[in-house]
Amino acid sequence: MFSKTCEYALRALIYIAQQSKNEGRVGIKDISKSINSPEHFIAKILQDLSRKGFVQSAKGPNGGFYMDQKNRDVSIADIVKEIDGDKLFTGCGLGLEQCSETHPCPLHDQFKSIRQNLRIMLETSKIQAFVDDLDLSVTYLKN
């Protein structure tokens, strides 16, 4: 459903939010190991997300990535749109460019409601809620 870049970004942001909730910072090696992602790939993703304001970074011996409360209140939908665009929320289920209300594909009506439900779910899902679930051991980030 999400691109690999988006999957890694979501897992990394959730992990960083959890680790930095008490003013901590986390390095690329720890992030990569903790979410099962290639170190170089996640470094590139986080560099981009840092430039876009989704996560902060600090250099030096006590450096690393961290998130403030404002970032923990970001919706999953905002992150998905930034990385994968809004095709998940607007695109055709069969990938047709001309699919529309007046020119629907065979899946149009059924997929439209799925897209709407998915959009609502991701817009109402905040990073902080996932951190809370991890802290309660209700969910996990690593296989």
UniProtKB/TrEMBL annotation:
For this protein, the record's InterPro entries field holds: Tscrpt_reg_Rrf2, WH-like_DNA-bd_sf, WH_DNA-bd_sf
- Any transmembrane segments, and where? none
Q: Which GO terms describe its cellular component?
A: cytosol
- Which Pfam families does this one have? Rrf2 (PF02082)
Single Gene Ontology MF annotation: DNA-binding transcription factor activity
What name goes with this protein? Answer: Transcriptional regulator
